[in-house]
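User: Sequence recovery, please. Input:
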């Protein structure tokens, strides 16, 4: 139901299989929060993490502020990032 829960499940999956390196593919505007959510979990330091941003339709990295969808993506992501920092 959340990025943090997904990261927690992924970390447990890595531990169960003895994985030490992981590449996570997520939407380009979502990589920062995903990285911080994963790194905030106990035991995550045992996994080398690489974030791979994927293209997101409706969001352009260079011109996100020019579209309503881009503005909504960024505003939503900053609100969620603030929540994660306060809650976890």
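Assistant: Recovered sequence (88 residues):
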């Amino acid at each position: 139901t959340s990025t943090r829960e997904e990261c927690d499940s992924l970390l447990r999956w890595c531990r169960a299989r003895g994985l030490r390196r992981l590449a996570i593919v997520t939407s380009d505007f979502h990589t920062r929060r995903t990285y911080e959510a994963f790194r905030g979990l106990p035991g995550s330091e045992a996994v080398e993490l690489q974030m791979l941003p994927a293209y997101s339709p409706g969001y352009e990295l260079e011109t996100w502020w020019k579209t309503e969808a881009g503005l909504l993506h960024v505003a939503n992501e900053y609100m969620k990032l603030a929540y994660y920092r306060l809650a976890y």
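The helical segments are 3-17, 31-39, 68-87.
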